[in-house]
Amino acid sequence: MESKLAVAALGALAHETRLEVFRLLVRAGAGGLSVGRIAEGLGVEANGRLSFHLKELVGAGLAVSRQEGRFIYYSTNYPVMNDLLRYLTEDCCGGLGCGEVVDACSPEKCV
Amino acid sequence: MESKLAVAALGALAHETRLEVFRLLVRAGAGGLSVGRIAEGLGVEANGRLSFHLKELVGAGLAVSRQEGRFIYYSTNYPVMNDLLRYLTEDCCGGLGCGEVVDACSPEKCV
DNA sequence: TCCATATTTCAATAATAATTGAAATCTTGG
DNA sequence: CCAAGATTTCAATTATTATTGAAATATGGA
Is the CB of B111 inside 8 Å of chain A's CB atoms? Predict the structure, then answer.
């Protein structure tokens, strides 16, 4: 992962609402959630502000969206999330083997 | 970890210089690096700007500093780093066991 | 087609963070 | 104690990001 992508992703997460959205999506798994469900999960309205924050997460590469009927579903971009975590912990302690993130979450391994 | 602490930590990392400082410190391990060495590792001057960024990392809980002789050493705050990574991946996919960060780096386990 | 639900866009304003350069502090060897 | 290296503080300026509210678009069912 490039430094600029990581900065963009971290900047997107450095906001209370977006961080909660991200965590909600991580919990939701590969299927994701509609905007309405996200708003519900956060206890906020599905308004322009939420839409803006969702767009920011997508712009930073941390989420993807897809249209399904009249709903739009957002879901975590797991490969980018894993890249980001790896980038943060890379070569920890000079590579002395004290543990490094490989894949924090791989939805394809879910039961 | 509380949401506000996570936002502060992510905000501190969402900056090119600070992110590189953090990664440098992660690589350096528990002993950390003096400000001069950090500047060297980044290819910048040890000036007010770098000092400000280091203070930001400490303020966000991601690093700690200690004075040793006429040098000041900064090092990663590993427990906070691990908390942050756990916070981001918590209950991934609803807890279906697709892998979650436990401890990305535990310097006490280093060889 | 028309309506209701779902979601986004936009522009103005407000708030926060980054950069600069110069001066100040702190530490130890001579 | 003084000088030099190491690091920090501060205030002014500039740049970036967030919030608000209202209007716009898109979709599927009656």
Answer: yes
- Nucleotides of strand D within 7 Å of the protein's CB atoms: 5-10, 17-23, 26-28
- Beta-bridge partners for B73: B34, B66
CB neighbour class for A100 (10 Å; exposed up to 12, middle 13-18, buried from 19): middle
Task: Supply the pLDDT for residue A95.
Answer: 77
| Distance from CA(B71) to C1'(D7), angstroms, rounded | 8
Domain annotation for chain A: domains and CATH numbers: 3-88 (1.10.10.10)
pTM for this entry: 0.93
Residues 6 or more apart whose Cβ sits within 8 Å of residue A60: A8, A9, A11, A12, A13
Residue range A55-78: mean pLDDT, rounded: 96
Mean pLDDT, range B90-109, rounded to an integer? 78
Label residue A104 by pLDDT band (50, 70, 90): confident
Please give the average per-residue pLDDT across A36-57, as a whole number: 96
Residue ranges in chain A assigned as alpha helix (H): 3-13, 16-28, 35-42, 48-59, 78-89
- A107 and A78 Cβ atoms separated by less than 8 Å: yes
Q: Which amino acid appears at position B86 of this protein?
A: R
The verdict on A15 touching B (C-beta cutoff 8 Å) is: yes
Give the residue carrying structure tokens 């609402």: A17
- Cβ partners under 8 Å of residue B76, min gap 6: B22, B25, B26, B28, B30, B32, B62, B63, B105
Q: pLDDT category, B101, cuts 50, 70, 90?
A: low
